[in-house]
Amino acid sequence: MKNVRHIIHLVVVLAIIGVGLLVVRTALVPATFGQYGAYVGASVDAIRSKPVKYVGAEVCKSCHKKEWKKWSRKEHATVACEVCHGPGAEHSVEDTLLRSGDPRPLPVRSKSSGKMAAQAHDLCMSCHAKAPGRSTEFPQIESKAHLAEFKITEGSDDYEKAMQCLTCHTGHDPIK
Asked: Is residue 125 part of a domain?
């Protein structure tokens, strides 16, 4: 019975720690946490309040029927338009700027900005660079080796242009 006092002290200390943890949890975890599973319910309203940036391929199709038709039947059909071209909501801004003659810079990945071709290599390589973990059935490219197949080397006059990918390939029909 001598040790009972030590056990009581231990239980009291553990109870105080437990209550302290509950108080801290209550203070730190938002009230709407768990409302939709493991999510903060209030975050849905916060997300809804943000401006729309991505519009989806169906919206692109409404104006770009020819490109959409070509893209939808080719290798990149599983890659959304906005992965390569950037958020579709900016596109309407680009169109407005072009028509109005507004001098503001165009969105970075717009075709009209002239930056798409310059960025194509990095953009293409974000998916197609040779990587040990990728399936061998997925097209993987080592840029220098790929260009060497066509007798284009670092010293060649057309090396920089060839490194842009879009010089030889089109994004909507890349095998062509």
From this structure: yes
